[in-house]
C-alpha cells in the first residue's frame, strides 16, 4: 500500500468510508461521492479525500457507524469542519470521543430546535465562568452551524458544546465534566441558602470562588494534598463562624458526591472565599 493511499475496509455511504492507512491504522474518510461504486479492498488516493480523521477506539468506531445512517451527509462534512476549527483553536490534539459525542449532541439539538423544543441549560452561568476559552470556541461553533446549515442554536447549547470541548481537550469524560458542573452548582446553592445571599454571577469574587471549587475537585480526584495553616484555621473559626460552618458543609457534600476524602485545609480556603462573597452581598 502506497503511503499516500488508503485501502477501503467498509463503505458506510456514498460520501463516507472506513479505510486503513500504513501510518494511521483505521480512519474515517469523507469526500463527495468517494464511496460510489467502491467495495472493500479497493484502493483510494489521498487526493480524492476531502476530509478524514482517526477513530482508534473500537467502541467509538461502532457508535459512529451506527449514527451515520441517521445523519445528513452535508451535516457530516460540516461537523468535520467544526472539529478542525476546535482543534486549531485549542492548538492541541482532541480526544477522539468528541467526534462521536459532539456530532451526536449537535445532531439531536438541531432536531429538537426544528421541532420547537428548547432544552434549558441549568449550568450555563457556571460553564461560562469555569471554562471561558471553551465557551468562546463553542460560540464560534454555533456561528459556523448558523452560517453553513442555516440553523440557530440557543445560548444554552453554547454551554453544552463548551462542556463537550472541555471533555475533548482534557482527560475527563463528559459524564465526569457534567458531574463536576452539577456539584459546583449544588455547592453555590447551599452557600446562597445558608448565608441568605444572592451571589452576583458577574463579580470577580464569584469567578474566583467557582474556579477554586473546580481546582479543589480536581485536586481531590488526583489525590493531591493541601497543607493546612492551623493558626489561620483558628482565627477564621473565631472571626467568621458562619462562613466556617458553611465551608464544612460544602466539604461534606464534596466528599459524599465524589466518594473521596477532602482535605480539612479546604475549609480554610473556602471560608475566606465565603467571607468575601458575604461581604460583597451586604
Structural commentary:
By secondary structure, this protein is α+β, with helices and mostly antiparallel strands. The protein contains 11 helices and 5 strands; from the N terminus they run βββββααααααααααα. Strands 4-1-2-3-5 form a 5-stranded antiparallel sheet. Helix 4 packs across helix 6 and helix 10 packs across helix 11 (265-280). The radius of gyration is 24 Å and the shape is elongated. The mean pLDDT is 87.
Short structural summary:
The chain has 282 residues and is α+β, with helices and mostly antiparallel strands.
What's the structural blueprint in terms of helices and strands?
Elements: E1 5-13, E2 16-21, E3 25-30, E4 43-45, E5 51-54, H1 58-67, H2 73-90, H3 97-114, H4 124-130, H5 132-149, H6 155-169, H7 174-195, H8 204-222, H9 230-239, H10 241-258, H11 265-280
Antiparallel strand pairs: 1-2, 1-4, 2-3, 3-5
Helix pairs in contact: 1-3, 2-3, 2-5, 3-6, 4-6, 5-6, 7-8, 7-10, 8-11, 9-10, 10-11
Q: What is the CA-based Rg, rounded?
A: 24 Å
> Shape from CA axes?
elongated
CA-CA gap between termini: 72 Å
- Biggest sheet descriptor: 5 strands, antiparallel
Order of helices and strands: EEEEEHHHHHHHHHHH
